[in-house]
Backbone:
């Protein structure tokens, strides 16, 4: 991808703008569903706590029709959330790809990896322990250089995003790896629901950090797009003059 015909500044600007807007919509939808998930998980943990200590669901609401509806809809709800998260990840990776393309178009040495390598680095096990962090740091440094502002000594947003991503994934893997029989014990079910709630909260923090990060680098990207557009204009003008006999 990186060795093909360079994308013009307008195409980059349109692509980045579309990816940013689409990601914000998906993040709001996912975030709203995650908030509901946190409440649901904590409620299940509360019911499990009551059952563990009293042996009954009396006054917990677990015997109500509304609770049964929630339980029946939880599978579809989780499927919709998974689809939204998958699409949000793809859109974010599209934004990463375009951001790296822009950075390399303005200053080829500003980022360590080619666009396709940067995207693959988010997906491949083992290398995704360090490559996403490096890509995010490079893009933030590039944006800061365009704005002529200093970069923080510690990459708080990139580090926070990577940490929350692995934390959310790890916590949810614990829950998903638990056999169905593990939820039958009230004490174990309570702990698993607390873990699931923590995973959802970590994912919410990841969304907030990602949104803040994209906002931080957007100003520098806008300046870079103007610089690239001006360079294209001058190059086009020079080409026209060279064609005039």
Residues:
């Amino acid at each position: 991808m990186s060795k093909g015909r360079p994308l013009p500044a307008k195409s980059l600007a349109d692509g980045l703008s579309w990816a940013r807007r689409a990601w914000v919509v998906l993040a709001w939808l996912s975030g709203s569903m995650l908030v509901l998930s946190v409440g649901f998980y904590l409620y299940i943990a509360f019911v499990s706590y009551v059952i563990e200590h009293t042996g009954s669901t009396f006054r917990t609401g677990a015997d109500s029709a509304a609770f049964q509806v929630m339980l029946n809809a939880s599978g579809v709800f989780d499927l919709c959330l998974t689809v939204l998260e998958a699409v949000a990840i793809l859109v974010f990776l599209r934004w990463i790809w375009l951001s790296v393309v822009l950075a390399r178009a303005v200053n080829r040495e500003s980022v360590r990896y080619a666009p396709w390598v940067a995207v693959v680095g988010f997906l491949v096990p083992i290398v995704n322990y360090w490559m996403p962090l490096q890509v995010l740091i490079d893009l933030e440094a590039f944006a800061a250089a365009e704005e002529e502002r200093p970069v923080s000594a510690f990459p708080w947003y990139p580090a926070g995003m990577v940490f929350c991503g692995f934390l959310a994934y790890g916590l949810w893997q614990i829950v998903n790896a638990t056999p169905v029989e593990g939820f039958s014990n009230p004490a174990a079910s309570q702990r698993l629901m607390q873990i699931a709630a923590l995973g959802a909260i970590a994912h919410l923090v990841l969304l907030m950090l990602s949104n803040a990060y994209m906002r931080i680098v957007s100003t520098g990207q806008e300046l870079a797009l103007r610089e690239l557009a001006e360079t294209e204009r001058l190059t086009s003008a020079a080409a026209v003059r060279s064609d005039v006999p």
Notes: The mean pLDDT is 88. The two ends are 36 Å apart (CA to CA). Residues 9-238 form one domain. Helices lie at 9-54, 65-106, 115-123, 131-147, 156-176, 186-243.
